[in-house]
Structure formats: structure tokens, C-alpha cells
Amino acid sequence: MTEITRDVVIVGAGAAGTTAANELRKAGLSVAVLEARDRVGGRLWTDMIDGAMLEIGGQWVSPDQDALIETLVELGLETYDRYREGDSVYINAAGELTRFTGEMFPVPPTTEKAMVELIDRLDVMVERVDPDKPWEHPDAEELDRISFEEWLRRQTDDEEAAHNIALFIAGAMLTKPPQAFSALQALLMAASAGSFSHLVDADFILDKRVVGGLQQVPLLLAERLGDDVFLGQPVRTLEWSDAGVTAMTDTMTVRARYAILAHAPILYSRIQFVPALPRLQQQLHQHISMGFVIKVHAVYDRPFWREQGLSGTAFSPYELTHEAYDNTNHGDERGTLVGFVSDREADDVFRLPAEERKERILESLSHYYGPEAKNPVVYYESDWGSEEWTRGAYAASFDLGGLVRYGADQRTPVGPIHFACSDMAGAGYQHVDGAIRMGRLVAGNIIEEARS
Fold first, then answer.
1. pLDDT tens across 308-348, in order?
2. Dihedrals phi, psi of 398, to nearest 5 degrees
3. DSSP single-letter state for residue 62
4. DSSP string covering 156-180, please?
5. Which residues in the chain are classed under CATH 3.50.50.60?
6. If we measure between CA atoms, which residue out of 212, 219, 220, 215 comes closest to residue 78?
7. How far apart are alpha carbons 395 and 181 in whole angstroms?
8. pLDDT digit string (tens) for 20-34?
9. What DSSP assignment string belongs to 224-272?
10. Does residue 65 sit in helix, strand or coil?
């Protein structure tokens, strides 16, 4: 059993953990980063699959993500624009495909009017939401009591408009059915991106990618930490008191003044706390759960959809694959499509044998792009739901009523134990930007405390 002593022990080597560790080191504090996986990155993972570089986890950079952009510049990483030249496609409830340009889906005039009204209404509401304190919204109690689906039903009787607006939050972001989270949780998601309009605008929210993959952020940050990052070290027990903490893995013991849990909150239960966490945290953590989405990668010998004048951007709340994009790598002659299958649809297809699931998903992509989409040279499904140290995607959110009841307590330290991950960010919530912001915030808090 290896025993070491540090100022701070950090559990998790994702973007939040590696950011916090670097900030602490700059301030002269010693760190040890314990990572359960055999790799650095957490929910960022760029890998070679059958000769194709795939972004298995997070990948996009939005223009409002200042913390991430600053980090990319500081690390010397380059970005490039997501391919978006040509027409997007939309499939309605009748299965009819329409090509279009711009942000608004090609829907009947009455549906378009309803969608515009809903977007405007949501934008006005979002202006009153502080993403760091959504529970302080004047109508927070009421908004957290009703599901987003119920809120939409109260606003409009246009089913297609409601389905499309729900798609941007439920399918594309929280990856939960719209009846499973509150209207306030939906407003937080929008406020974290600046507005609901930003979530509707794929050219904003999915603006750029990183040359070589986004996992380079935590990898390069971890590189700077050298031998202070320990892989394959799931923390089994965390003893704590006002005097400090002792983190124990199967082969290591780290004694420190502070601990940062820099991983998804649903994994706190994997650690035995001695003494147990206070009653408030025990309750809080039972009201948070991960969403679930399959990220589908299909690589072709060329980006054939561009020959048809298509951008690769596709949407439909009625398709198995509810959205898809051109995900071709920088400088790659081959073409890559990425599609997403969320929540209940993902549950259903994972009940099928792998080949049948693949066939169903590629069939859905072919509805957007034509029969050529059925024959990729590489096919891969990112299944974070079965990943032991993640257990869902993209991130965690509260159940109905949970945000108002417990949201303010998510980040509150317990003695020397601090919490940092994208799941509890305000700006950049559920994104790498939020993870970096939380890593910086918690590191700053510890530095201030250590100096006082």
C-alpha cells in the first residue's frame, strides 16, 4: 500500500479535476489526482475506432464558452468550424422530408408562429434566471413543480410546435423525456447557454471543434501534473474531519488537508464516507440522475451528402435519430455523420440485438440522407450508460422539485470536502466550459481558505 501526503486530493481526472489541480499547483499547493479509469478525460474521450478518429464524448465549442476558449488558447489548441454549407433537412410527423436553411424548421405557418412565440416567451423568462441561482427566480417554486412537457401544453395546443421546442431541451441537452424534469430545469439549461435562442441555433451551440479532439484539454492539463496523476485508482473510502481527509483506493492512501470530488454526483455513492455525509447531502444526491443518449458515429468513404447540397444538419422529433450533423474530422477525406438517440428511444433500441439496433439507426439516418447512409465503412455507438464511472450522458439533472429544494446546496463544501463538475455549473452547465469554470471556482475557494 502506497501512502502519500498532499495539500489537496482530487478525485477524477476530467476537465474539472485537471483544471483545479493546475490552479492549485500554480498557487503552491501540492496535489494528487486519483482517477478510477485507466485514462484521463472523464466524459471527454477521443479514440481511434477501426482506423477512424472519433469523439466518443464531448466535442463542441460555442462562442460564449469563455473558460473553455481561454483554456484552448493557453494550451495552444486549434479549432475549426463545423461543416454547415448547404441545406439542412427536417422530417415531420407524416415522415415527409423538407430541405431548409436558417434556424426555423420548415413547418406550417401556424406551427411556426407557435414556435416563435414559445421561443420568445422562454427567452424572456430566461433573462430572469441566474444560472448560478435558478431557485431565486420569482416563480421558481411553481416552475419546478411542473414538468417541461406540462408547461408546454399549457402554452400551446400545437403538438408539432411543442414537440420541436421540447427537442432542444429534452432530446438534445438533458436527454430525458420532457415529463421527467421541471420547467425550471429547462430554464436553467437555456440560461447556462445565454438564452433559449442559443439552444435553438445549432450554428451557435455546435459552432467549432478542436483539431485532434477535445480530450486534449484534460490530457495536456494532466501532462503538466506529471506523476501527480494516478490512473486506475477508484477511491473506495474517504475519511474526513476538520483536520483533513484520507482517501483510500485498493493500493493507495492519500492524506490531505482538502478533497475535491471532481466527478459526476451520481458516483458519490460509490465512495464510503467516514463519517457518513450529512443528512442533507444524502437526500440531495438521491434527487439527481443522469440522462441517457446514444451518440452514433457513421464514417463513409466520402461526405456524400455534400454532393446533394446538404450541410449534414438534420432534425426530427419523430425520428429514432432525432438530430444529426456532419462530423467530418479536420483535413479528412472521408465523411463522418454523428447522430443522437435519446432517453426512451435509447432504452428501446438497447433492448435489441446489436445488429438489429445498428440497422434501425442507420435506417433512420437514411431517411435524412438517402440509402447511401446505410453503408458506413466504420460504425460506432458511444454508450455512456454502460460505462461504470459515468453511467449516463451527458450529465445529471434534478427530478421535479429537486432544483428548488436542493440546488443551493450542491456546491456547499462538507468540512474539507469540496465538489466540482459540469453537472453543478451555472454558465456552461453540462459542458466542458462549465467543468473548467467549476474547477477554477473550487480551486480558488481552497486557495483562499488555505491562506486564511
1. 999 999 999 999 999 999 999 999 999 999 999 999 999 99
2. -80, 155
3. -
4. ---HHHHHHHHIIIIIIII-S-TTS
5. 2-41+215-277+414-451
6. 212
7. 13
8. 999 999 999 999 999
9. HHGGGEESS----EEEEETTEEEEE-SSEEEEEEEEEE-S-GGGGGGSE
10. coil
CA nearest to 429, candidates 417, 419, 438 = 438
Return residue ranges of the chain for CATH 3.90.660.10: 46-64+76-84+205-213+292-386
Q: What residue ranges of the chain are covered by domains with CATH 1.10.405.10?
A: 104-200
Angle between helices 432-451 and 15-26 (to 10 degrees): 30
Tell me the C-alpha distance between 435 and 430, whole Å: 8
> Strand pairing partners for 47?
54
CATH of domain 2-41+215-277+414-451: 3.50.50.60
User: For the chain, how many residues are written?
Assistant: 452
Which helix (H) or strand (E) covers residue 2, if one does?
A: strand 2-11
The answer on pLDDT for 1 being more than 90 is no
- The pTM for the full model equals 0.97
Q: Are 62 and 72 in contact (CB under 8 A)?
A: no
Task: Indicate the Cα dihedral angle 425, 30, 389, 391, nearest 10°.
Answer: -10
116-136 pLDDT per residue, tens: 999 999 999 999 999 999 999
What are 221-238's pLDDT values in tens digits?
A: 999 999 999 999 999 999
The CATH number corresponding to 104-200 among 3.30.70.270, 3.40.50.720, 2.130.10.10, 1.10.405.10 equals 1.10.405.10
- CATH number for the region 46-64+76-84+205-213+292-386 comes to 3.90.660.10
Q: Look-up: residue for cell 459542458?
A: 431
| Closest listed residue to residue 249, CA positions, set 230, 225, 269 | 230
Residue 98 pLDDT more than 90?
yes
Q: Helices (DSSP H) in 265-415: which residue ranges?
A: 279-285, 304-307, 343-349, 354-369, 402-406
Cα(428)–Cα(438) distance, rounded to whole angstroms? 9
**Spatial separation of the C-alpha atoms in residues 450 and 452, rounded to whole Å:** 6
Residue 92 vs residues 85, 102, 315, 316, 338: alpha-carbon distances, Å: 22, 17, 9, 7, 20
Is 273's pLDDT higher than 90?
yes
**How far apart are the two ends of the chain, measured CA to CA in Å?**
34
- Which residue stretches of 83-147 are H helix? 109-126, 140-145
